[in-house]
Design goal:
It is a single chain. The protein is mostly helical. It has one domain. Helix content is 51%, strand content 9%. It has six helices and four strands. A two-stranded antiparallel sheet has the order 1-2. Strands 3-4 form a two-stranded antiparallel sheet. The longest helix is centred in the last third of the chain and has 20 residues.
C-alpha cells in the first residue's frame, strides 16, 4: 500500500494484486451478494441518495455482517485462500479491498439487468450436475 502525495495532500492507494485478482471468479460477486442479502436483507441493495443528488450503494463493507458474509462465501466456494489473504492485510488495506469488492458487487449484481442465468447460477448448476445431484431436463 503506497502513500501517494498529491500537492499538499496525501492518500493511501491500494489495488488487489494481479495474482489474487485473476483468481477471483465472476460468480464470487453473486455468491457474496447472496450472503449479504441473507445477513442484512434485500434493503441492502437499495440506492442511497446523499441529499445532493448523488446516488450510491452502501453494502456495509467493513462491518461484522460483511465479514461474516465474506467468510461464508469463501468457505462455500472453497476459496479460503482469498479469506486468508484478506485477514493477512493491514486494516486500512483490508478496508480498501472490501471497498473494491463492494464496487464490483454493485456493478455485477445490483446494477446489472442482464440474463438471469448469472455466473453463480451457472457455477451451482454445473457443480450439482457434476456431483449427480440433479439431472438435466429437456
Amino acid at each position: 500500500m503506497p502513500i501517494v502525495r498529491c500537492g499538499d495532500s496525501v492518500y493511501l492507494e491500494y489495488s488487489i494484486p494481479k495474482e489474487i485478482d485473476q483468481k477471483i471468479p465472476k460468480y464470487f460477486y453473486f455468491a457474496m451478494a447472496g450472503e449479504l442479502c441473507s445477513i442484512s436483507g434485500p434493503w441492502l441493495f437499495d440506492k442511497i441518495n446523499d441529499g445532493d443528488g448523488v446516488e450510491y450503494y452502501d453494502l456495509r463493507s467493513g462491518t461484522s455482517g460483511w465479514a461474516a458474509a465474506f467468510y461464508a462465501t469463501c468457505k462455500k466456494l472453497d476459496m479460503m485462500w482469498l479469506y486468508e489473504y484478506v485477514i493477512g492485510l493491514n486494516w486500512y488495506d483490508c478496508d480498501m479491498f472490501d471497498e473494491e469488492i463492494e464496487k464490483r458487487i454493485a456493478k455485477a449484481v445490483v446494477k446489472s439487468k442482464g440474463n438471469r442465468a448469472n455466473e453463480y447460477y451457472k457455477y451451482v448448476i454445473d457443480k450439482v450436475i457434476e456431483e449427480g445431484k440433479i439431472r438435466v431436463r429437456d
